[in-house]
Amino acid sequence: MRAVQVTRFGGPEVLVSAEVPEPVAGPGQVLVTVAVAGMSFVETQIRRGADRWHARPELPYVPGSVVAGRVTAVGAGVESGWVGRRVLANLPGHMGGFAERAVTGVADLAVVPDGLGLPEAVALHTDGSAALGLARGAGIRSGEWVLVEAAAGGVGTLLVQLARLAGARVVGAARGERKLDLVGELGADVTVDYSEPGWTDRVRAATGGTGPDLVFDGVGGEIGRAAFEVTAVGGRFSVHGAASGRPTVIDPEEAQRRRIQVIGIEQLPGFGPNMLGWAGEMMALAVDGRIRPVVGQTFPLDRAAEAHASIESRAGIGKTLLLL
After folding, report:
1. How confident is the model at residue 244 (pLDDT cuts 50, 70, 90)?
2. CATH 3.90.180.10 fits 2-124+293-323, yes or no
3. In the chain, at which end, N or C, are there fewer CB atoms within 10 A of the end residue's CB?
4. Model pLDDT, residue 111
């Protein structure tokens, strides 16, 4: 069976094509013929051996934690009616997706509804679930100003739309005209380029001088720090990423002095048990036309290294996927 393996920790070049044994569905499991494999920025850091939140996998390993495709076989104890169904699947150990076929437990499946493509379903799994969990954890309120960093990314594009659905006004922050145009199309009231000097001054001006009531910080580093400094007194600051290389760290005394509720990156592990359920909710919203998942770049399986490089370069928009 064709697959892509990580043979050593390092840059995208360590992703190499390989022939691996065919997986077999055991008791309580199904075999999925993979049509789409998802990937995330965190997975690129695991590949580098640089991620601080996950254990290093044993080498060699097949990356890819989420796939979509059709069930083609079932193991003992699984109803035969699963065969032929289009599904979204979490994979055990968060690995095995960069392959023609994958095995997972029947409890780790979600049926993809009619009217939604498999690429869109994958885009709504990890990123969609994360966006919904972040939105609920922060409690978006109608009429308030919300700043979304990395607003043209997989999570950011969905946060912009969820905030608008909740009745909030949105400032979408991204880098470059192409990304800002997309963020505006998705409903952001104001867009700002955070690669330009004085970007927080434009955020403050857009929000009537008070700053945003809620910030979704997916970048960290200097940008995350600057976003915290412009957050309104009494606001909320939700951390979910560290695209800059390090998450934003806020002094609790400073947050208390400004009465800002900081929802730290430690919120993310608690999302795990809800991922499939939240993905189902996001898929339903997409079928109803209330949100639009953005699939920005797709690559064939044998160009997985290019796909990872695209994610790390931050040049793409929306979700990056492998199509088999």
Report:
1. low
2. yes
3. N
4. 94
